[in-house]
Amino acid sequence: MDLLIIGDHHGDIENTLTYLEKLAELKFDVIVYSGDFTDVNTPKGFTQEDIAELIIEELKTLKKPIVAVPGNTDTSEIVKILEREKISIHGKGKVIKGVGFYGYGGAKTPFGTPLEPSEEELKSGLEKAWKDIINTKQKIQVTHSPPYGTRLDVVQAGAHVGSRVVEEFIKSHKPIVAVSGHVLEARGTDKLGTTFLINAGKFPEGYFGLVNIQNNIVSGNVLNLIG
């Protein structure tokens, strides 16, 4: 299975159409969206819900299954949109081609953004989602918050700001891949135990991830559409 990993639009849709045309030329089976369709501030004349719906409609033109979690800047109304579009894996799981996708969105910040679950809520949500896909052989975890203490949660000042619950859930449940976003400057890949980790960075800057799973071997990288 080949995964296209994108996320963190933060309401910036200016280059989305051009970039999606380029993505259509790539080979992948599933689109994985790691959250933050929108931002607190939106372009004039648009609501956050308008932005999320526009992005989802454009992703649908790629004609591949989509799974998504909300980010910390996404509202409860956007969570409802993901549910309505049947692409949400926020506190639930979905099986695609025999692979189990599960996750939970949002992330803690110092800024009081719309979706900031506690570590207890995050753990409960992941446990609930896990139960939906427990019988699948291969499992892929999708959270907005990155696992603590990895390359994917280091902010510019050098501190680790990820979730210890996400870290521990990966260690204990051992998904084959764990996708996250949120910390834009920490885009890249890493490993935690046997789990392949990826943070694809900010899509409006051209960044995306490709992950290949063949048997139980995972390879992948973060790439850029610019240039």
Describe this structure in words.
With 227 residues, the chain is α/β, with parallel strands linked by helices. The protein has a single domain, classed as Purple Acid Phosphatase, chain A, domain 2 (4-Layer Sandwich). The chain is 24% helix and 26% strand. It has 5 helices and 11 strands, in the order βαβαβαββαβαβββββ. The protein has helices spanning 16-23, 48-60, 76-84, 119-132, 164-173; strands at 2-6, 30-33, 66-68, 93-96, 99-104, 138-143, 177-180, 188-192, 195-199, 207-214, 217-224. The strands form 2 sheets. The protein has a 6-stranded mixed β-sheet, with helices on one face. Strands 3-2-1-10-11 form a 5-stranded mixed β-sheet, with no helix packed on it. Strand 5 (99-104), helix 4 and strand 6 form a beta-alpha-beta unit. The longest helix has 14 residues, at 119-132.
For this structure, what is the CATH homologous superfamily? Metallo-dependent phosphatases
- Termini separation: 27 Å
**Level-2 CATH architecture:** 4-Layer Sandwich
**Helix share bin:** 10-25%
Give the helix tally.
Answer: 5
Sheet with the most strands, sense and barrel status: 6 strands, mixed
CATH class: Alpha Beta
Number of domains: 1
Mean pLDDT over the residues: 95
Broad shape: globular
Please trace the helix and strand order, writing H or E for each element: EHEHEHEEHEHEEEEE
CATH fold name, please?
A: Purple Acid Phosphatase, chain A, domain 2
Estimate what percentage of residues fall within beta strands.
25-35%
Provide the low-confidence segments as ranges.
Answer: none
What structural class do the secondary elements suggest?
Answer: alpha/beta
Number of strands: 11
Write out the strand line-up for the largest beta sheet, numbering strands in chain order.
Answer: 4-5-6-7-9-8
Oligomer: single chain
Q: Calculate Rg over CA atoms.
A: 16 Å
